[in-house]
Amino acid sequence: MTKSIHTKRILADGLIKLANSKNFKEITIKDITDACGLSRHTFYYHFIDKQDLVNWIYKYDVTDIYQVCSKDNWSSNVLRALNNIWKNKTFYINAIQVEIQNNLSECIYEYSIRNFISMADQMERKNQINMAKRDFICRFYAHGFTDMTIDWIKIGMNESPEYILQNFIDVTEKGFFQSFE
Q1: CA-derived radius of gyration, the chain
Q2: C-alpha 107, offset from chain centre
Q3: Average model confidence (pLDDT) for the chain?
Q4: Residue 113 Cα distances to 4, 118, 126, 140, 147, angstroms
Q5: What is the DSSP string of the chain?
Q6: What is the pTM of this model?
Q7: How far is CA 179 from the centre of its chain?
Q8: CB contact set of 74 (below 8 Å; sequence gap of 6+)
Q9: Of the segments 18-27, 51-60, 74-83, 145-154, which one has the largest average pLDDT value?
């Protein structure tokens, strides 16, 4: 881990910890830097504002930790993403409720569409389906994954990541994979 990533992780952990005990809107840059023992200058060296930090957390937790998915490993990668969100449950529930630019859905969608396209391209009969149909099917499933994950967070993550994953598996194996076989 580079020094820059390490510093960003410290700031992210500070915000996550504060969001567990304080209203998200009330958390200031000063609160974050005080919690981390870092200066405001350090914060602004790495992030433009609090939302930039939130977006980095989303990106780090949801997209940056994954390899490209295949039919064989996609479910374990999805479970890793759900578990990362779950482990910071209070932060995600609080952050998703704030009326500010919220890029979690963009991060999940970007991850999902990239991986659905990759999996579709890996399927044996990929040449038997036209690209427009392939893209439609991939967008359909990526939007479904994204919206269901956001809904899961908004309603309080009452189900376990494993439960959500099992539902994703049921839908994906009965629909997505069959579209390309």
Answers
A1: 18
A2: 5
A3: 87
A4: 29, 8, 16, 9, 13
A5: --HHHHHHHHHHHHHHHHHTTS-GGG--HHHHHHHHT--HHHHHHH-SSHHHHHHHHHHHHHTTT-PPP-TTTHHHHHHHHHHHHHHTHHHHHHHHHSSS---HHHHHHHHHHHHHHHHHHHSTTGGGS-HHHHHHHHHHHHHHHHHHHHHHHHTT--S-HHHHHHHHHHHIIIIIHHHT-
A6: 0.83
A7: 26
A8: 115, 119, 172
A9: 145-154
What count of other Cβ atoms lies within 10 Å of the Cβ of residue 117? 18
What CA–CA distance (Å, rounded) separates 139 from 79?
A: 20
Residue with tokens 């992780």: 9
Domains and CATH numbers, the chain: 1-47 (1.10.10), 51-179 (1.10.357.10)
- Nearest-angstrom CA–CA distance, 36 and 3: 15
Tokens for 54, please give them: 């939130």
Residue with tokens 């999902």: 112
- What is the model's pLDDT at position 149? 93
Q: What is the dihedral of CA 91, 88, 81, 47, to 10 degrees?
A: 50
Task: Provide the 10 A C-beta neighbour count for residue 35.
Answer: 18
List the one residue out of 173, 104, 164 whose CA is nearest residue 141: 173
